[in-house]
Design goal:
With 157 residues, the chain is mainly α. The protein has seven helices and no strands.
Length: 157
């Protein structure tokens, strides 16, 4: 299978897993919450997801096209897959279990894995590291957003 097709299959499978784990009623779940300031509308969340999967696709395609399978390449591939799976598992906490505290806390190990991926990619694919560094910037916002969301929806009235 070509690197392009393999990367596409992996990203589609990860997106399907994320959708399945989130379940139905994603838009309604978001609409039912008290949102922090600067929360994007649903369409922007979809765009963010599309950009995330595009970054994963570009990085996976490049890594899978490398002929020499080395330990750093294996580490980078494993970290990309781990990021994809962890992102999908976050959906269980947020959408299925409706655990805002847990979904916020999950950002911490997730950010560590994404940071390790950036470091790993910086040695073998600097463009991929730069792409995931951009994602890290978004992740700072997402962590702030998750924290504020948790606080806004657990305050006693």
């Amino acid at each position: 299978m070509s690197p392009t097709l393999s990367a596409l299959v992996i990203c589609i499978a990860a997106a399907a897993l994320e959708g399945a784990l989130a379940g139905s009623g994603v838009r309604q779940r978001l609409a039912a919450l008290h949102m922090p300031p600067y929360s994007p509308p649903f369409a922007v969340w979809l765009l963010i997801g599309l950009v995330y999967y595009a970054i994963c696709f570009v990085v996976l395609r490049h890594l899978l096209a490398i002929d020499a399978v080395t330990p750093p390449l294996r580490v980078a591939l494993a970290l990309v897959i781990l990021v994809l799976v962890a992102n999908a598992l976050w959906s269980v906490l947020f959408f299925r279990r409706r655990d805002l505290r847990g979904s916020f806390i999950a950002f911490i190990p997730y950010a560590v894995v994404v940071s390790a991926l950036v470091l790993s990619l910086s040695r073998i694919y600097p463009l991929g590291a730069a792409l995931f560094l951009c994602y890290c910037i978004y992740l700072l916002y997402a962590t702030w957003w998750g924290y504020r969301l948790w606080l806004l929806n657990t305050q006693k009235t």
